[in-house]
Design goal:
The structure holds 2 protein chains of 2 kinds. Chain A is α/β, with parallel strands linked by helices. Chain A is built from 10 helices and 10 strands. Classes of the chains: A alpha/beta, B alpha/beta. Chain A binds chain B through residues 52-53, 159-162, 189-195, 197-198, 201, 216-220, 222-223, 242-243, 246, 256-269, 273, and chain B through 43-44, 159, 188-193, 196, 215-222, 241-242, 245-246, 255-257, 259-264, 267, 270-275, 277-278.
Chain lengths: 280, 345
């Protein structure tokens, strides 16, 4: 396994000013969405980022992708600093970093055909056009478990799981090095979630992808991640190997988070409740 | 055992659509006794929410075809006039929904909305008393500083607090039956645990009967007494919590159990998955609806198996699968645990 670092984030801070005033805006306070986080991901590995809503995990992703300008801190991709780059300077890095979104119903343009949605990144980055483009798109569709005949269909003709496959095909079109998955399965039905997780696993092996996997479901994160970072109120409170964080958590917040995950086993759930009652 | 509060018998709900009659619920029967939690588990389109909504008359419309029987303390609800149902809702039966953001009116203070709900059913209660009652209710669901919080608007509350406010409103008239449709799906796990604790306490302390609709087997394991597993509009298995978790009879139930990513077990190399996707309700396969996704399919499966008890020692445990109990107990063992075998390539 290569241990070469693909992405390194150091002391990343993103504060949003809270403004008051009618004619002259005064900054009265800051929302510390991301408050000095550091982590790195090795090539071909998966880092799981867990936390509750408002913990800053999505803001951190947006900062890495250059969708929001960080207040301070450093983001190095393959050794080059990309924090605060202009749109134009960011452009070459865009093809190396792609995102898979949570809601497959909202993240696909309903008026475009699947072929267009998946092929658009290839066109925009001038990688392929014409019949070459169509061939590439059909290969991608096939690879994510859809059929090449789906090329001319519209998103509404697909189920949630299939739409997420379209989103994955689009993210992979430019053969990115880093894929940021923001809650990729939380909007899907249980029986479909496992299919998508397994697909992401297979694609990682096949293309040597590196994932930053953001989710609130710690069970799913543990399954797919090599390492896990737990975020709370803009800070990373604990980081370690997936098994270490889930089995031997150190930080009190991580412990609280793990204890709140319901156990799908009635006897164990009852024992745990009895234990909590006698302890509390 | 006390008499059932609610009895649902062979409930069928169909909707006339452009594509033909969509049978959303097909022959669901169960009962709920005081203090009992009955969970309905299923995926989107399985009919679990339509079942619950039909009980309190929310699916009545020109294109709905509703058959069967729903009785609440012996009164038939499916035939009841709208006015009777309106009185029943809120007063005896309350419902809480997944999204607490859209369930309140954003332009009125929360306390006022609750007081209004109380006065709509009990006009004899004065505005002042109803306001006091709202404060008590906020306190009983664990909202801190209830005196001031009743004057907040819905947007001033976080998701978990809003769900508590919704539970407070649902409890305002001390209902006997609570229908909770995915009450914690939109919430963080730590908040989910608090809300589930609150619901459990209400079941025990006030003998509140609950129908819990969810897709999360973890939540079911923590809260339910009895479970119905629904798939494509039909109940494929029903029984007590222990029967469903420790002796599941239907392959779909095995699949659900197997595909959970469990923190309390070593992680498998691959997550066991159920192949394919649920069928369209307008184009159900012949026979068992789960047949196209089932690795254990055999020739009998093109006939729809009836929902019946197949285990002599467990008369209340019913399922819809033609395999014999011995075959089931053998086939569901995948890698030492309950699961659905991967389909042959």
């Amino acid at each position: 396994m290569s241990t070469e670092t693909l992405l390194e984030v150091a002391d990343l801070v993103k504060h949003f000013p809270v403004k008051r005033g009618v004619l002259v805006d005064r900054t009265v306070d800051h929302v510390k969405a991301v408050d000095g986080i550091s982590f790195s991901i090795s090539r071909g590995q998966t880092l799981g980022l867990v936390g509750e809503s408002g913990s800053g995990k999505s803001t951190a992703c947006r900062a890495i992708l250059g969708l929001t300008k960080p207040t301070s801190g450093s983001i190095r991709f393959e050794g080059s600093e990309i924090a605060g780059l202009s749109r134009r300077a960011m452009r070459p890095y865009r093809r190396e970093m792609q995102m898979i979104f949570q809601d497959p119903y909202a993240s696909l343009n309903p008026r475009k055909r699947v072929g267009h949605i998946v092929g658009d990144p290839l066109k925009r980055q001038r990688v392929a056009s014409g019949s070459e483009l169509k061939k590439r798109v059909q290969e991608l569709l096939d690879r994510v478990g859809l059929s090449p005949e789906h090329y001319n269909r519209y998103p509404h003709e697909f189920s949630g799981g299939q739409r997420q496959r379209i989103g994955i095909a689009r993210a992979l079109a430019l053969q990115p090095k880093l894929v940021i998955c923001d809650e990729p399965v939380s909007a899907l039905d249980v029986s479909i979630q496992a299919q998508i997780i397994n697909l992401l696993d297979d694609l990682q092996d096949e293309f040597g992808l590196t994932y930053l996997f953001v989710a609130h479901d710690i069970g799913v994160v543990r399954h797919i991640s090599d390492r896990i970072a737990v975020m709370n109120q803009g800070k990373i409170v604990e980081e370690g190997s997936a098994d270490q964080v889930c089995e031997r958590p150190v930080d009190p917040y991580t412990k609280k988070l793990l204890a709140a995950v319901p156990v799908p086993d009635p006897r164990e759930a009852r024992a745990r409740r009895a234990g909590a009652a006698s302890a509390g | 055992m006390s008499a059932p509060l609610l009895e649902v018998r062979d409930l069928r709900v169909g909707f006339a659509t452009e594509g033909g009659l969509l049978q959303a619920v097909d022959g669901v029967s169960f009962e709920v006794r005081p203090g009992e939690v009955v969970a309905i588990v299923g995926e989107s389109g399985s009919g679990k929410s339509v079942t619950a909504q039909t009980i309190i008359g929310l699916t009545r419309s020109k294109n709905a075809r509703i058959e069967g029987s729903v009785t609440f303390e012996g009164t038939e609800l499916l035939e009841a006039p709208d006015a009777t149902l309106r009185k029943l809702r809120g007063d005896r039966v309350a419902m809480i929904f997944q999204d607490p953001m859209t369930s309140f009116n954003p332009v009125y203070r929360l306390g006022k909305q609750i007081a209004e709900a109380i006065r709509a059913h009990r006009p004899e209660i004065s505005k002042g008393e109803a306001g006091e009652r709202a404060i008590e209710l906020f306190e009983s669901v664990g909202i801190p500083d209830p005196k001031h919080r009743v004057d907040c608007y819905p947007h001033e509350f976080s998701g978990g607090m809003r769900q508590r406010a919704m539970i407070a409103m649902a409890l305002a008239l001390e209902p006997d039956l609570l229908i909770a449709d995915e009450p914690t799906t939109a919430l963080d796990v730590t908040i989910q645990a608090q809300i589930m604790d609150l619901l459990r306490e209400l079941n025990e302390r006030r003998n509140l009967a609950t129908i819990l609709i969810t897709h999360d087997l973890g939540v079911v394991a923590e809260a339910a007494d009895r479970v119905l597993v629904m798939y494509a509009g039909r109940v494929v298995e029903q029984g007590t919590l222990e029967q469903i978790f420790y002796d599941p009879q239907h392959p779909y139930t095995w699949g659900l159990m197997g595909s959970l990513s469990r923190l309390d077990r070593p992680r498998p190399k691959r997550l066991p998955q159920i192949a394919g996707a649920p069928p369209s309700l307008l184009a159900l396969p012949e026979g068992c609806s789960f047949r196209p996704r089932c690795p254990h399919e055999f020739e009998s499966c093109t006939d729809l198996p009836p929902l019946e008890a197949r285990l002599t020692e467990e008369p209340g445990h019913c399922d819809r699968c033609w395999l014999s109990p011995d075959e089931k107990r053998q086939k569901r063992q995948v890698g030492g645990q309950i699961g659905l075998e991967a389909p042959a390539p």
